Amino acid sequence: MPRRPRVFVDGAVYHVYCRFARGVKALAAVADAEDFLEVLRAVKKRDGLVILAWCLMPTHYHLAVRTGTVPLWRTLRVLQGRFAMRFNRRHRALGPLWQSRYKAKLVSDDRYFRRLLAYIHLNPVKANAVEDPKTSVWSGHRELLGTGRNPICDRDETLRLFGATRREAVSKYRSTVRALAGETWAEREPGRLPWWGSPAARDDDDLGEPAAGPRVDALGASSGRARPALAAADLIRRACTTLGVEFERLRSLRRDAEIVRARETIAVVAVERYGVRVNAIAGLCGKPPDTVSRWVSRGAARRSADDGFRRSVEALDAALAESAPSAPRSGRRS
Are 266 and 234 in contact (CB under 8 A)? Predict the structure, then answer.
């Protein structure tokens, strides 16, 4: 049976974890670890991901992230897929690099936010790779202390979880790390951690939305926009109307700046925000799937570099969400 789609919440905190297949130590070499971080920086910038904590181990990685409006499944698919391609090319290897699809657990209980960050940064200590987390160069611990270079962690965003000022927050973060270091459960696999549910819970369990009620993360971010479930044809028709672009122009061979911008805007919103398949857009527009994939890729890159384009994407997303307010919310597929 095909796996059910996962549903992710905008503006929420997730613990993300994945292992390499067959026990491969794909992150043991400095060059490979640096390459993974290079890809991570790129997708973070492109998708507006907030990284609260990170750690690279030879056989796996951990991230604590706060999602933006780009669904987490898309960011992680690019992260793992791009790194796997580069790793296999460098080592002339064949076959899948990852053991399975990533695990991502929504952390919605205030009791666990701080412990999650400490758990991730203590991984090298628990694995006996280092005696003190501040000596590890493959985690965000030193970045939160203010001593790491070229940080990946969004330091101030993370420290807000611990205190009102940097000094207070760093002190409380240190205390949390010291306290967790003595906890026996800190050595458990992710599926057996408190925020992953009961010890019997399976790592491959599909994820749903959190319980009813206001969905606001520890940093006060909204859980996101309720989007209607729109078929591809209906979404594209509504998008063309909103942007003032005729559908036939979208399908045409024209490549002027206006139509290129419209194609990329619609493709990004349709695929990233509404889970529309690239093949469905390609069929409607009479284009090869590879062409539509390029629209999405170029649009995602332009969104991170062009504030005007990013505002156009957000405006179209909002207009589509308001166009059918009574419709059920669309899922975020992985």
Answer: no
